[in-house]
């Protein structure tokens, strides 16, 4: 994006290197670079530094069926989690951040079992014989998953133990009860009695007390008590109240695991009984519930009922400590009807997802605090945001640019007496009060407020239900979703009365309206008063709320237009290549699994189109195969921030065309969700998008290349796209 002449200092920070496509779009100077940013249609040569000579680290293969032209989706996901684990093992990252990456690995695996593995179990139970994209049957995929996840979970916990040992060398130690002296043990006992035991509920199993329900992802102690009238010990379950209490507690200045403190004091909980032993275990359940939306008269009530049913999904994984006796393990398996192949005997700590943050203040062991930049054109003294947007569009690159600008836009709209209507799609909202407060105050002051709240956003259903009820009480028009579809688009429309008539202002983004994740995820926001995009946004909301037929001029909206629009543009590139022209496509998304899009990329490659993509997570396309995909390069980029933005750019015979928005190239996004991909209509902004892609495709620090054989290899070098974006700040 071109810098105004009034900000020469900022403009001077740009690199002079430009992509060929960026020049065609008359883009300004590119981002600062450790080396030349490679043109978007060309491969990047690795810099020959000392780091470049280090051996490449590889993950296990994503191939399930070696004879297939597609990679296995589940294996590809596990390979992604392997790359996250590599960040936890990377000694260039600070120790506390490495522990967070380990926790992310554990959290990712939890969701993988709750949704993907649970889905495979359901397919097998239903007798499904339909092969996956790569030709494997569900039972074959489950075997691969079991083999890989047993190994991965052991390594995740081993990595956590190694990092905790290194933290101990830095003075951050998690103490065990047997390491405390007499005074320390007494202090722990008082803390347990005062702060922990009142929260606990002992549940003994006997003829009058059935085996208790074990909630999803809960940590539990299996307590063996000396039998009263028989030789066999009695079984009791005590839930470790993580969430109510922190997993890591501070007692007398020492850090201790909550379950260790509890296990050492079970005799206090079961007074009059002799406690023989206590063993930790954890259960993962199927949380992927379905319901008949066509039969649901009240979608909100139906989703609430589904959340209640989700709690009782079938167990799909049982984690236990290695010291658990075989008889007790067999008892748990029998009671929860779980296969021995779905039991994970681990050294611990179980539930690494709970280790996201230790209660310590050690900035020297964390990433340097990141302060988002304020956009130079959004810092106004005598002009409101609407005046700014009448003169120019604003492009924001989060988290490098502050998400506060989006919240300011909404708050100004809510307070402005000339604003007549605010319409917004909310998918994952978070709990920040500014967004909810802006919509409530706008509704309470008589503005037309339409909140399209997607109740079916997995694991955020309860929060979204709460928001829906609060906004309805404030007088907003709340739409609870569309039958058969999830609404995943990120769009806000503001209608304002101005001299000469009504003007529409639009925000389109790649990420959710969630200020918390906007500090952790890389996303893009466009604020504009472009009349054509405003008209299309109006069509979108009329379709969502009134099922009116939509006639879009520029937006590509799923499920009806997005896939066809993307394929049409890839086929146009293929025709340019066949005519001998410079044809290329660069893209960035989170997942690539849709067969039709993969086949379209294969056809483009075979025609001679140069395809380069950054795909953070799952990728089922097999690149670099002669005669199929030799012109396709796939990379995965990981780092401090979660790469989340989606960009799709086409060479278009020298007049690049760029789209961005909410849709990954997955069948669920293109067929079963309402998604929006918006064109970048301003040439200088197109140049900025292409500059972003140049920088990310030149990254070395967090980049992995997907090979033809399905193996990801770590790229050598130190150049970091995220570090460059963080240092540079606002796009324009």
Automatic annotation (TrEMBL):
Its cofactor is Mg(2+). The active site is at residue 488. Residues 13-54 have a biased composition (Low complexity). Residues 384-549, 555-719 form the Polyphosphate kinase C-terminal domain. The keyword Magnesium applies. Residues 185-358 form the Polyphosphate kinase middle domain. It catalyses: [phosphate](n) + ATP = [phosphate](n+1) + ADP. An intermediate of this reaction is the autophosphorylated ppk in which a phosphate is covalently linked to a histidine residue through a N-P bond. Transmembrane segments: none annotated. ATP binds at residues 108, 521, 616, 644. GO terms for molecular function: ATP binding; metal ion binding; polyphosphate kinase activity. Keywords: ATP-binding, Kinase, Magnesium, Metal-binding, Nucleotide-binding, Phosphoprotein, Transferase. It comes from the Bacteria. Gene3D superfamilies: Endonuclease Chain A, Polyphosphate kinase middle domain, Polyphosphate kinase N-terminal domain. Its EC number is 2.7.4.1. The keyword Kinase applies. Mg(2+) binds at residues 428, 458. Residues 1-12 have a biased composition (Basic residues). GO terms for biological process: polyphosphate biosynthetic process. Residues 1-59 are annotated as: Disordered. GO terms for cellular component: polyphosphate kinase complex. Residues 70-174 form the Polyphosphate kinase N-terminal domain. Catalyzes the reversible transfer of the terminal phosphate of ATP to form a long-chain polyphosphate (polyP). Belongs to the polyphosphate kinase 1 (PPK1) family. HAMAP family: Polyphosphate_kinase (MF_00347). This is Polyphosphate kinase. It comes from Deinococcus proteolyticus (strain ATCC 35074 / DSM 20540 / JCM 6276 / NBRC 101906 / NCIMB 13154 / VKM Ac-1939 / CCM 2703 / MRP). The lineage of its organism: Bacteria, Thermotogati, Deinococcota, Deinococci, Deinococcales.
